[in-house]
Amino acid sequence: MKKHNLLSHLIIFVFLFSGNATAAQGDVDTNYGVGGIVHTPSGANVIAASATSNNGIIVAGIGHHPSDFRITQLLSDGTEDATFGSSGHVEINLPSVLGISNFNLTDMARTNNQETIITGYNLGSIGGDGVLAKLDANGNLDSTFANGVGALTLRNFAPFTGQGNIIPYALAVDANNHILVATRCLYGTLVARFTPSGTLDNSFANNGVLAVSYPLGGQFSHMPVSLEIDPLGTITYGYWVLTGSSTALTTKVVTQLDPNGSLVTNFGNSGHIILPAANGEELVSVKRDVNNRTLLLTKNCVLSRYTTNGVLDTSFGNNGAANVVMPNGSSSLCLGLTLRPTSAPIVTGSIQQNNNHQLLVARFDNSGQPVANFANGGVAIVGQPPFAGIVNAYGAAFSVLQSNGHIQVATTERPYLNNFAVTAIEDTALNVSPRPARIGRRTSVALNTWTYSIPFTVSDLTSGAKVMATIEQGEYSINNEPYTTSPGFVQNGDLITVRHRSASCFNCSKRSTLELGGYYDAKNGGQRLGGSRTYSFSSLTKGLIVSPL
């Protein structure tokens, strides 16, 4: 009898403490936060979310007071990051810092130094005025930005003077931590680039500011949607134009710019993808994948993909488009789009069933087909529990990836007052760090000559994944293509060789360091997420031979 009781207790113990051993793709990760969710102190609507370098998430939204902005930073398990702000939370009132009457948050981005950039606007007697602010890695206003203030208003810069309405809606940070911001104005938009210290970057466009108008002509209201910057500095800018009678009838435009702000004319129609207005298809997100294809998400949860040259990719989904399949009797809105390193899209938003708004997470494969074994035919619907109330009814749910493949999603829940809520969804594991390899050390080499490593083949990455490649003090070649110093992407099966010029002195060494791995964050400083591996190649020149007298 005692043995039977002991066995029963052991079975119960294993069941209670086995965690998520049987969790499937699309399930809530119950080990995240408390029971699969993190509820933050009361705030208001979530506006944006980004990944942090340690597998965590940073979430920005409106604070307790309408003119405050609130930022919460969580570690990979949902624990509040004690190194950031006050126990993981920051709430700042910019009107008191800048002497403005109000502030409305619209977007957030990150530098590769883990600094946080936020943008929004102040509505005053002469219209809107854009605002930029920068927080250091600990969540304090950055004293190196905007002459020590940590924040600035755009109307103080000459190119913005005289503009009737300056309302920023999209942010991105490049690999040099320059800040790109897109603002609405009366007709058209302005795209400006700022240095890390908060001055206009005069090397971009016209003294730091590019005026963007509807490519087909006419005076229409514009809405900036998203900015992304690839490793070579190419900018992808998505916006919609009010060519119809309402926001349900807007023309979608994606413009591609080189690092200096000039049109990439071999993209689309002389630098643009222009898609006529269609009911319900308001553009909400634009992403470029690691194969340089462009993905567009509209608010009615429809994805489309375009080739490197900006032509509809009919191999994707159903003749170029993929829809989130909804249960009968439901409706949905989507605002969030994230790509896995395999280029497979993740769409997030909200779904309404029986007047109950719940979180929606949809997974597609690289060809635009729903991932059948993810939740219910590719769509996970998460309600109460773990949420304490209904989620944001307007599709405002934003996801970031963890290196284990899990999807962290931030949204707003409304049990009593609005507050941030973050959950994690199970998904297939990712491996973005390739296998180690010895690539050689050359000795007794001639002075100032090209010296080559042992070639090696990339392996052990998740199938279909492309990961970052960067090099210091040398050049690298992929599959015997020309050598380069520029950042790039590699995948399983690629043959890599490193070279450098040997030292110009006798018995001197030189070392090249190749770093492979991690997925590229095109909005947030080009930060490398998910881990990487370094490969070292060195050379030693021959010694000086001194002949005897």
TrEMBL record:
<protein>
    <recommendedName>
        <fullName>Delta-60 repeat domain-containing protein</fullName>
    </recommendedName>
</protein>
<keyword id="KW-0732">Signal</keyword>
<dbReference type="Pfam" id="PF17164">
    <property type="entry name" value="DUF5122"/>
</dbReference>
<dbReference type="InterPro" id="IPR013431">
    <property type="entry name" value="Delta_60_rpt"/>
</dbReference>
<feature type="signal peptide">
    <location>
        <begin position="1"/>
        <end position="23"/>
    </location>
</feature>
